[in-house]
Amino acid sequence: MNKTIGILAHVDAGKTTFSEQLLYHTKSIRQRGRVDHRDAFLDSHEIEKNRGITIFADQAVVSYNGSTYFLIDTPGHVDFAPEMERAIQVMDYAIVIVSAVEGIESHTETVWQLLRKHRVPTFFFINKVDREGADGKRVLEEIKTQLTDNAIDITHSFRHGAMDEELAEFIAERDEELLEHYMASGYDRDIWLNALRKMIRSNEAFVCSSGSALQDIGISGFFEKLDQLTLTHYVPDEPFAAQVYKIRHEDNGNRITFLKAHSGSLRVREEVDYGGSENRKSEKVTQIRRYNGSKFHTVDQVNAGELFAVIGLSEAAIGDGAGKLIAASRHESVPALKSKVLFDPPLHPKEVLKYFKRLNAEDPTLAVVWDEHFQEIHIHVMGVIQLEVLQQVVQDRFSFSVSFSDPEILYKETIEAPVTGYGHFEPLRHYAEVHLKIEPAPRGSGVLLDNSCHADALSIGNQNLVLHHLAERDHHGLLTGSPLTDVKITLLTGKGHNEHTSGGDFREAAYRALRQGLEKAENRLLEPIYQFKIKVGIEQMGRVLSDIQQASGRFEPPEMTSGKAVIEGTVPVATFMNYSTEFASFTHGKGMLRLLLSGYANCHNEAEIIEKLAYNKDADPEYTSTSIFCAKGHGYKVPWDEAESAMHCL
Q1: Helix, strand, or coil here: 235?
Q2: pLDDT at position 373, please?
Q3: d(CA 270, CA 155)
Q4: Which domains, and CATH codes, for the chain?
C-alpha cells in the first residue's frame, strides 16, 4: 500500500526533528540529524542548513509494516506557504506538529485552513512536552476550540488497534448506527477500528498524540497508530493519471517534473499527455526517478500512489494533470507584495529574465513580469525572508548577484458595475471587431471568461481565439496599472473578414474592447488585508484598539477570558505589516498576535495611492482604448468615448 504523508507546522515547532525520528525508526537513515547540527536528512540544501529552517518541500521514502510511505517535509515559515500548499495537494494524510509550549500559532491556522480546503485527513502531534512551560492539555483544548471540536487524544487510549472507553464514546457520538450496534451486541474491535479509520478519512475525526521529537518520546508509538489508522485505495490497472506538484531544474538546465500517480502505471519511453483542458501536449518520458532526500535512483516503472520525477516533459506546469487527469490547481497562498529585481549593468536584462523564468516555473506565485517599457523585471513575494533566500538561490545556482527593491504592496483593481466594451482594429488589410461585457465577480475569483457569442456572428475558431487572447496574460486597470481582478468578461459578439483578418487582429480588438469598457466603468482599487487575532492583558486592550483604528482596521467586540482580552478583525496589510515588532515591545513578548492574509478589500486610502503611483493610463505602452477604423485606404483613430457609435456589429 502506497501512502503519501505530509508533515506540517509553524516554524520551530519541531517538524524536521520529528521527521528525522520517523526516518530513523523506520531504518531509512542510520543516525538522526538535527537542524542545529546542519545534518538533517530532509534539509539538505545549503541555504536550509545555514538558516536552520525548511525552505523546500523534500520527500523521503520509507517502508513500514508492508506499506511504502512517501514522507513530505514542508516549510514552516509563512514566506514559503506556496511551496507548502503545492505539496498539500498530493498528500493522502497530514501530520500537523504543534508545540506544547507555544501552542496554536498564526501559521498553524494557515496550515489548517489549507488542509481543510484540500480536504486532507489530518493527525496532530503535540511536540516538546519535555520543555519547561509545556502544557499538552492546554494545547489540546486550543486545537478543539480554535481548529476543530472533533479532535481526540489517543496517546493512551489507542494501543495495538484496541481503544479505551473514552475513545469508543467519541466514535459512538458521531455514528448512530455504530451506537445502536454497540447497544445490541457490545464492543467489536474490528468494527470500531474501521469506523475510526472511516471518520479520519472523511475528516470527521482528527486524532492527536503527544511526545517529544528531540527526546524521542512517543514517536514510534505515534507512527504505529498512524499506520493502523490510515488506508489508501489506488487502482494500478486503470489508465495512467497523475498530477504535477513540483518543478525543479538541474545545474545543466534539465527540467525535472515531479508527479503523484493517482491510478495506473507509467514506464520509461512511454508518451504522456499533460496540461490543461485546452493546451494538452504529448511528450515521451526519457527517465523516471524516485527521490529520497537529495538523492535519487532511476526506475523503469512507477505505479498508482507513488511520488516520482520524470525527465522529458518540457513544458509541464505545477498543477497540470497527466494521462487521463486534466487539472489546474488553484492556490490560496497568494503574495501581497511586489519587488523589482536589481542587478549591475554588465548583466543583460534578458539573460537575468531567462533565469527568473526558470525560478517562476518552480514557484508560479513569483509571477515574474518583464516590463518592456522600463526594461525591468518584477516579481511577487510573500515577504522579506523570501527575497533574502531568492538572492542566495540566484547566487548559488546561476553564479551572479542580484538584489531587490524594498517590497511594496501589491494592489489590484476591479469594477463596481457592469459595462460593455467595444474594440475595433482595422488598419489597411487588417480587420477585427470585438464586443465584451465586463461585470464584477465575487471577491477572490480573479478574471473569469465566458462566451455568449453566436456562431452566425463570429466563427467558433475566432471566438476561441478571442478568449485565448484574453486568457494569455494578466490585464491591468486604469487607476494605477495594477492587475485587474474579480471581473467576469463575456464575449458578446464580434466580426472578422475572410481576406483581411490575420494573426493578431483579434488580440488588438479584444484588448481595445477591454480597455474601452474600463474607461466607462466605475473602477476601484483593492488592497490586501490581514485577518487578525490579538490576545493581550485587559490593561493593554485600549492601546491595541487604538492602534487598529489608526491602521484603518475593523474589529469585533473584544471577548474577555481569564484576565485577557481577545480581539479579532481585519486590517490592511499596508498599515499592519510591521506591527509585530511594536506589539512585542509594549506587551514585553507576552501578547499574542496572529496575522493571516485574507484576500483583498477596497483600498482604505485609494486617492492617496492613486496619486502616489502616478499611473498615466493614456501613456500605457501595452494598452490603448482607441479603436482604429479604415476609410478610403487609410486607417484613422477613434477615441474610446466615440468608438461605440462607430462599431460595425451594432
Answers
A1: strand
A2: 77
A3: 47
A4: 2-229 (3.40.50.300), 241-323 (2.40.30.10), 337-410 (3.30.70.870), 413-521+616-646 (3.30.230.10), 525-607 (3.30.70.240)
Backbone phi and psi for residue 49, each to the nearest 5 degrees, phi listed first:
-65, -40
pLDDT at 525: 98
Distance CA 650, CA 647 (A): 6
C-alpha span between 431 and 495 (Å, rounded): 8
The mean pLDDT of 1-6, rounded to a whole number, is 94
Q: Where are the alpha helices (DSSP H) in 118-246?
A: 136-142, 165-173, 176-185, 189-201, 219-229
Tell me the C-alpha distance between 516 and 425, whole Å. Answer: 13
Indicate the helix (H) or strand (E) that contains 115. helix 106-117
The SS3 assignment for 628 reads: strand
Beta strand spans in 214-371 (E): 241-249, 255-263, 265-267, 271-275, 281-284, 287-292, 295-299, 301-303, 307-311, 321-323, 337-342, 369-371
Which of 444, 436, 344, 350 is CA-nearest to residue 644?
Answer: 436
**DSSP string of 396-416?**
HHHS---EEPPPEE--EEEES
CB 97 within 8 A of CB 105: no
Please, which pLDDT band fits residue 332 given cuts at 50, 70 and 90? Answer: low
Q: CA-to-CA distance for 10 and 14, rounded, in angstroms? A: 9
Find out whether 290 and 270 touch, Cβ atoms under 8 Å. no
pLDDT digits (tens, 9 = 90+) for 416-437: 999 999 999 999 989 999 999 9
Instruction: Provide long-range contacts, Cβ within 8 A and 24+ apart, for 316-319.
Output: 316/244, 316/247, 316/255, 316/257, 316/274, 316/275, 317/244, 317/247, 317/275, 317/361, 317/364, 318/86, 318/244, 318/245, 318/246, 318/247, 318/361, 318/364, 319/86, 319/89, 319/243, 319/244, 319/245, 319/364
For the stretch 45-90, pLDDT in tens is 777 667 777 777 888 998 998 899 999 988 888 888 888 999 999 9
